[in-house]
Specification:
Elements (H helix, E strand, L loop, with lengths): L9 H9 L7 E5 L12 E2 L9 E2 L3 E4 L9 E9 L13 E5 L11 E4 L3 E4 L2 E4 L9 E2 L10 E3 L7 H9 L4 E5 L3 E7 L3 E2 L13 E2 L1 H12 L3 E8 L3 H14 L2 E5 L10 H8 L1 E6 L2 E2 L3 E7 L2 E6 L3 H19 L9 E6 L3 E2 L6 E10 L5 E5 L8 H5 L3 E5 L4 E2 L4 E6 L21 H4 L5
Helix pairs in contact: 1-6, 3-6, 4-5
This protein binds adenosine monophosphate and magnesium ion.
Adenosine monophosphate (AMP) binds next to helix 3.
Length: 435
């Protein structure tokens, strides 16, 4: 095998990019707007939850020692629903009827659930003995004053919002969401916005724009549609310079390869510190990165699948870092190939679109989702994971393969497309020379 070009390993490209992106400035946001943001400061509880001992059951607050030798009869002296209060104390031989969430009255040290009682008038027959603290939710059992509730880098989940609101927190300090511009480059591109035109000779629709903006949204970033720009150096430079004024990061697609009209790499070199690379991966070999006025620019390849793979492997982790995440990557599992994944030796790691499903024992099974050409976007949409097939002769059936889960969709939520035979023929495998 001869390689007439120098390939950059993915991990090197990744380190290069990650070293050149900074965390976003922080903002104080109301809990109402905090969902899915990344905390930029820790939060310590200043209240106990629950703040008072209360009943875990509907039943009777009793003195546990009174129930020794049950069944016993006790006199019901008061009623305590959730939100209620009383000055009555439970004295020997007494009980207070109490509902879930009702405050444990003085004197009582246990609750007997209503299912274990019989009530006639103001007398309750307790059928079983209860030990001290039975069915009592103690103050501070869930959260104690001084507990660290979250640290910088924690993602604010719906239930974490519940915890924060339960301790009286009203706002948190979080990293501002990155605003990420998406610029599609290419003379051949036609807008996908309404009104959608018919395609002229040689034209194609700008499918990358929508795909990338949705990927950005899905990751929790703000996406800005920067439209289409022609393969023309001055136009490209002014579009990128303009975008750097209003975005925290920019993603371009197309024009980073070695074609006669591939100007993005050159334009980025003129605009700031930049690097154009040939990555040792497939798809997504060409990739460029620059910092223009402190704004990172990710020059992704134009082929739709290559753009998605380069986004996943390089842009997304960097943007996750900007957004303050500790965890930059999608989850990875070891899958077992349920059929052979063919490939030829070419010095590159292949990212193969696969369907990953879990069997009854929790094991991940992976199989190709269809054609693996960089332009076969449908097989990307039909996949939910990328199998990382290192250089070599492929993965045999039953062999393990590292697999990146792209989302947590139930695999059955993917398009259940009918399987056209053509879709399943990977020409790059049949003909090693085809790209
Ligand atoms: P390039 O990286 O500019 O050489 O483009 C590689 C291939 O991707 C070509 O077939 C382009 O027509 C196609 N392509 C480029 N940009 C887009 C886009 N925004 N949406 C869909 N396909 C594209
Ligand atoms: Mg192009």
């Amino acid at each position: 095998l001869s390689h007439d070009e120098e390939l950059t390993q993915l991990h090197e490209a990744r380190s290069y990019v990650l070293a050149r992106v900074n965390r976003m400035p922080t903002v104080d946001v109301s809990l109402d707007d905090a969902h899915s943001l990344v905390a930029a400061a820790h939060v310590t509880a200043r209240e106990d939850v629950p703040s008072f001992a209360n009943s875990a059951m509907d039943g009777y607050a009793v003195r546990s020692e009174d129930t020794i030798g049950a069944p016993v009869d006790l006199v019901v002296v008061d009623f305590l629903p959730a939100g209620g209060s009383t000055t009555r104390q439970v004295k020997p031989g007494e009980a207070i009827r109490i509902m879930t969430g009702g405050p444990i009255p003085a004197g009582a040290d246990a609750v007997v659930m209503v299912e274990r009682t019989h009530t006639v008038g103001n007398v309750v027959a307790v059928e079983i003995p209860v030990s001290p603290r039975t069915s009592i939710r103690e103050a501070g059992e869930d959260v104690r004053v001084g507990d660290v509730i979250l640290t910088s880098g924690t993602v604010i989940s719906p239930t974490l919002l519940g915890v924060l609101s339960s301790i009286g927190v009203t706002q948190i300090t979080a990293y501002r969401k990155p605003r990420v511009g998406v610029l599609s480059t290419g003379n051949e591109l036609v807008s996908t916005s309404w009104p959608v035109g018919t395609l002229g000779a040689g034209q194609i629709r700008n499918s990358n724009g929508l795909t990338l903006r949705a990927l950005l949204h899905e990751a929790g970033f703000k996406a800005i549609d920067l439209g289409i720009v022609n393969d023309q150096e001055i136009a490209l430079a002014s579009a990128i310079r303009g975008a750097a004024e209003m975005c925290d990061a920019i993603i371009t697609t197309g024009g980073v390869s070695v074609g006669d009209l591939d100007f993005v790499g050159r334009v980025l070199a003129d605009l700031g510190e930049s690097r154009s690379m040939r990555l040792a991966i497939k798809p997504a070999k060409p990739f460029a990165f620059a910092v223009v006025n402190d704004v990172p620019v990710f020059g992704l390849p134009g082929n739709p699948v290559a753009a998605v793979v380069a986004f996943e492997l390089l842009a997304r982790p960097a943007l996750m870092r900007m957004a303050g995440h500790r965890n930059l990557d999608r989850p990875t599992v070891y899958g077992v190939a349920s059929e052979k994944i063919k490939r030829h030796r070419d010095g590159k790691t292949h990212y193969v679109r696969v369907v990953a499903t879990q069997n009854e024992t929790g094991e991940w099974l992976v199989r190709s989702s269809g054609g693996q050409g960089a332009h076969h976007l449908r097989s990307m949409a039909n996949s939910n994971a990328l199998a990382v097939v290192v250089d070599g002769d492929g993965i045999d059936m039953g062999e393990r393969v590292e697999t990146i889960l792209l989302n947590f969709l139930n695999p059955n939520d993917r398009p259940q497309s009918f399987e056209h035979p053509r879709e399943w023929r990977d020409t790059s495998v049949l003909d090693p020379k085809a790209s």
